[in-house]
Amino acid sequence: MGLMRVVIQRVSGGVVAVSVRDDAGLSIEVVDRFLKHLLDSGCSPNTAAAYGYDLRYLFEFLSEVSAPWHEFRPALAVDFLAWLSARPNSHRGRGSGSRLSPATVSRALAAVSSFYEWAAIMELFDLGHPLQQKFDPALARVGSRHQPFAGGSSRQMPVRRDVRVKVPLRLPRPMEDADIAALVSGISRQRDLAMILLMLDGGLRPGEVLMTALTEIPQFCSLKFPTPGRFRA
């Protein structure tokens, strides 16, 4: 079986359509409809393209097992997870023995989940979600999990998929000094500069900066704002 491919159509430099083609070069209509829905909904072209590449994995797998997309059941989802985990990584610069990373596998499962949610809404799929998500209150108590600034008042509910892969926790990478200098030098408004420096030098999160009142900073009135530059007394 030949590999499927993703075709990105551009007009005047802008992406107008993303299409997934099978090994015969024919468009997969249901995927193209879903990707068009993403673009029509305001998703960025890069997001739509990423979904296209992830759904390409699904349809390559379905082609190998000779299963139509509308018969993708939880049992097949388990096989799909194993197929993804064993798939060689064809990205340039990767070794010949490398596999898709857990983060890539998890992202592909998320894309497939969104695709079947859309298909159910469009009444194209009625077998029940193959990658069912369940409310998991215990997940919210995991210490290493990101906690939103609003804490328990956030509307985001902790969920866990029945079919999932363990993704290793990655430490955030600090910005290079040159990148920080470029960011600060490009800020023209003193308010924006103050907010950026509070996060950079004070370690505040965006939500904490937005909730900070000037009266909570006693030294604020004595600060001067050079343009561009850092705070100076």
From TrEMBL:
Keyword Transcription regulation: no
GO biological process, one term: DNA integration
Keyword DNA-binding: yes
Keywords of the record: DNA-binding
Cited Pfam families: Phage_int_SAM_1
Name this polypeptide is given: Core-binding (CB) domain-containing protein
GO MF terms, alphabetically ordered: DNA binding
Residue stretches making up the Core-binding (CB) domain: 25-120
Domain of life: Bacteria
Species this chain originates from: Subtercola boreus
